[in-house]
Amino acid sequence: WQAFSAFDAVFAADEVADQTLWVRNRRNGDRIALLGLSGTKKLKELLIDLKVPKDWRDRLPLVAAGDRILWVPGIRRSRHALVGKRTGKYLWVHAEFAAEWREVFAE
Fold first, then answer.
1. Buried b (16+ CB within 10 A) or exposed e, 29-66
2. What is the Cα gyration radius of the chain?
3. Of 15, 45, 62, 96, which is least packed with CB atoms within 10 Å of its CB?
4. At 107, is the pLDDT very low, low, confident or very high (cuts 50, 70, 90)?
5. Model confidence, pTM
6. Helices of type H across the chain
7. How far apart (Å, rounded) are the C-alpha atoms in residues 71 and 65?
8. Band of the pLDDT at 58, cuts 50, 70, 90?
9. Surface-to-core class of residue 99, CB atoms within 10 Å of its CB (0-12 exposed, 13-18 middle, 19+ buried)
């Protein structure tokens, strides 16, 4: 594997094959099952904690499988569809943002 950035995510394709994949904006009540944490976290709280500017929060794309958020590009990945040693097929997703998004992803 090559080194991936926060703008790349790899998923176990077999775990999402029977679901419709969506790229959408956030909705009221969205929750994400973060990798490394048990339970879920409100997406709104995550974005506030990470200091994503308020004007940009509703514009961020989300990658979802059915009603589960898999990834918020440049922000965080969920623990759904993780790749492991037994994963046979992979889905690699790469996101690119225009220069105007620099303020969102600036460290």
1. ebbbbbeeeeebbebeebbeeeebeeeebeebbbbbbe
2. 14
3. 96
4. low
5. 0.90
6. 13-16, 43-49, 54-57, 102-105
7. 10
8. very high
9. exposed
